[in-house]
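Teaching assistant here, posting this on the class forum so everyone can see the example we discussed in section. The complex has two components, and the goal was to see what a joint structure prediction looks like when all of them are supplied at once.
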Amino acid sequence: MSFVDPRNVAFWLYDWLGADALTGHPAYADHSRETFDAILELAEKLAADRFAPHYKKSDRIEPTLENGVVRVLPEIREAIAAYAEAGLFAASFAPEHGGLGLPHVVDAAAMAHFMAANVSTAAFPMLTAGNARVLTKFGSKAQIETFALPEIEGRTMGTMCLSEPQAGSSLADVMTRAVPDGEDELGPRYRLTGNKMWISGGDHDVTPNIIHLVLAKIPDADGKLPPGTGGITLFIVPKVLPDGTRNDVTVAGLNHKMGYRGISNCLLNFGERDGAVGWRLGEAGHGLAIMFHMMNEARIFVGLGAAGLAARGYRHSLDYARDRLQGRPASAKDPAQPQRPIIQHADVKRMLLAQKAFAEGALSLILFCAHLIDREKVAGDEIERARLSNLLGLLTPIAKSWPSEFGLAANDHAIQIHGGYGYTRDFDVEQVYRDNRLNPIHEGTHGIQAMDLLGRKIIRDKGVSLAALGAEIAQTVADASAIPALAGQASRLGEVWQKVDDTVAVLRAVNADPLANASPFLSAFGHLVVGWLWLDQAVIIFNDTASDRAFREGKLRACRYFIEAELPKAIPQLELVASLNDAAATMPEDSF
Amino acid sequence: MSFVDPRNVAFWLYDWLGADALTGHPAYADHSRETFDAILELAEKLAADRFAPHYKKSDRIEPTLENGVVRVLPEIREAIAAYAEAGLFAASFAPEHGGLGLPHVVDAAAMAHFMAANVSTAAFPMLTAGNARVLTKFGSKAQIETFALPEIEGRTMGTMCLSEPQAGSSLADVMTRAVPDGEDELGPRYRLTGNKMWISGGDHDVTPNIIHLVLAKIPDADGKLPPGTGGITLFIVPKVLPDGTRNDVTVAGLNHKMGYRGISNCLLNFGERDGAVGWRLGEAGHGLAIMFHMMNEARIFVGLGAAGLAARGYRHSLDYARDRLQGRPASAKDPAQPQRPIIQHADVKRMLLAQKAFAEGALSLILFCAHLIDREKVAGDEIERARLSNLLGLLTPIAKSWPSEFGLAANDHAIQIHGGYGYTRDFDVEQVYRDNRLNPIHEGTHGIQAMDLLGRKIIRDKGVSLAALGAEIAQTVADASAIPALAGQASRLGEVWQKVDDTVAVLRAVNADPLANASPFLSAFGHLVVGWLWLDQAVIIFNDTASDRAFREGKLRACRYFIEAELPKAIPQLELVASLNDAAATMPEDSF
């Protein structure tokens, strides 16, 4: 069973985004719609055959730590090996790095199948690819050959080591120290000492080696660590050193999670003996900026995971609603008649349509963002590249947060449709819900995304990116307004855009902390973005009268539902933000 | 540690509801504020000493079924024994049944401590008291003595057996059959055959006997079961018969739940051999009406459980936010300064205040409803009794659904405040969240509550109950309008009330299915009710200038937050309902 409908993927990639046009650019000249489709079919099949089957088992049997060795379910190792063998680690890398040179949008669409099939197993390649991307972008030739290429072949996994027990969201406070230790062919060498917390895939037996990318600070002449984020540097710290000896990296403990259990999550101690050997990646003090390349990719993939789980819950509850007989709809109440499938109940339809609107809205948001990376690469000039880059920066916190919040809301509906059965472990939806609950937390919490969006991407950016988004939305509103069946929806979207714009104007003008209500703004802004993407897709499908009737009607309905039933929820949120409400921000601590 | 602040309980019972005035009525003449407080202190201590300690263990070690015998954690049996020994099963029963004759509002406040401490252990006395209440109300003297009195002493537990595998929400479709088998001193005797699903406490080793209240149909002369709910009758089916032999009731399986794990949840087979012996309770065909006395009580207690879990999550995350150092608030960004407790961050304050508003709003809603039962009992005339009864009927679906929905939202914030730690099983909040997810499902799903509210309690009732609520709200709005600091909030509440009233008028006038959007109406109506109760409490505390400053400010803030940040969310929901939006209801099935 496919949790992500291939008809949707084809609609998004070709009918809506026109991603096949990328092949007109030299960077993608070796590719065609056929090569895209081949990889997508491969991904769909591999996800179903090798990732989905151990979904529940990997929840029941968690990774173990014994005598310093972490073991995961053997099925996970086998799935990753099959993924590597199929060449999927290499999908989005350039041919000069052994990659297939596929566009990011195709890579993301392929990954959607894996995320939906088994989100915690899929986290291994997701983190590894992100890690290799940073290495290929910022590493020396020797560093790339030694560390990145084995990752791109899927022989070695990668991690990102940012947080510490005392420094979760506040990376300025990392205390891991890196002391210079000479230089060799892999670059300036250091000895690292410190503890890193929440390291997904921090240790395991999936592959013999693991490449850790570690944030640390280099002490000054007095041995003190520089305060703030400016002093943070990035280091490549392999589990096994190039000479085959074990590096000084120890697993101090595993975190036992509510869900997302297949992948180990570790507390790692660096330097319990002589200091872990690490090579500097990029310049000293540039660590956070470099790491954010991986972090931004990871944020989009967190959103993809949440979207995949939303799609999965939708699929499960749709199948259940079609099979389960219970009661009779309002139009046929005669109790002497047999019971009817619950899909006939208006409230079940509502919960299904909401899931469709959330899941497909979230997936299309992620593909739109991935496509922005590709469009930036093939853009004709610097102005267009800057515009696309700004748009991606603005949308990244939404790509991370919106699917995490509303994918979970979709999963909540999926459980509810199953009734009591949905609350049992005999069905998948309760695990889907538990797995998805991680997504608003890792790779930057919801609150962090809110501050990033409103503080960095809107206010500090002086509205440049926001204006780029506004132009896109205006175009969609204009297109939809020309279609009578969509004109009402266009008008509603336009109103919400105006409200967002007005709200931002208020926030720019005040002296008070503009970020006090950043979280409600984030939710409302996400609804605006997803409403826009839905309407943009509705314009396409409306004009494509040759498309399958049921498919077309489903898209138009989901758009209409989102804009009529969901988008208006942004209004009171924006009014709250614009009113500079301080009920919470000025609450005295002793009154809680 | 107390999860439900005794200061709040005292404020609600005495300052707000004036429940001590009940002692002026002969029914409660033996009681006083002192006897109320004694039972509340006892409950608080027993909950902390005997219910809270095995909270996590009862999640880790689920009930087992071996050779037909269900075993629960020994600590659960010991906790229930202590609860029985303290006389708490008897709290709300009349002295002639061995009870303490306490008002329901005091009983509910006492139970709040147990629900918050360990919701699944507390479900045993909750179900048993509800079962005994039905028996004492509808049973014969012999039935009461044989079945109810051991429950009131806590020597025997009780269940409610409604659902069947093919009949969950649709009780008209129950297929358990009851064939007449003579009559004895316990009344008309029957033999029952059928399967009952989702039976909480359906079997266990907490007490030797269990009294099942079972819905079944009596076949007609042709052996056919009458269709619909009219043919449903209620039977008393003990696990062990009065002569000490085992009845023909078998545990066919245990359900393995996402949370709420301490209490067994069973599939029971009645009559695998000769038919289970059961005595009819009340008249034939009156089964559902009688059962609804227990169901209505259970619905309020489900809301209490959800509210208790919300209060618990709030307490945990408040403690965590005061202890955890991370980052620096917007007003003190110097990274050379030490990190600050996260309670200083505006977004954390927001999530704490939302939890306070939800948890205390939910608890006060439940106590208001419990007090309505007591007020009905002491009411001076039939008109007042009818008014209070209508109000309780209208509020019961809200008491069930609102805490279930927003208690869960509160727990979501509690996890988020803990960051990654909240997602681990080292902390309690992930379990609190999993436990709470049952509450929108059992004892009538959210969708069932929505149809009950809008269909039965508003439209079919011709607005009589709604008018009673409107008069109460109008009084509160008038009182609050007279206080300048609350006048703005009063005006907002008045607007939402008007919007509800207008929406109902639209729904009454249409031919279309008025229930298609019953669920969004339910959520919005719940916000209206809780906003009203918050404002009603704000008037009291505002005028009580002698009360503790921090406590008073906390209440006024939580009210303000709820009315300014939460209540406006009802507006777009009500507009959707009033627009008779049919995007979901008319969605073609093949377009999902």
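For the discussion questions: The CA atoms of residues 136 and 198 of chain B lie 25 Å apart. The first helix of chain B runs from residue 6 to 16. Think about how each of these relates to the inputs above.
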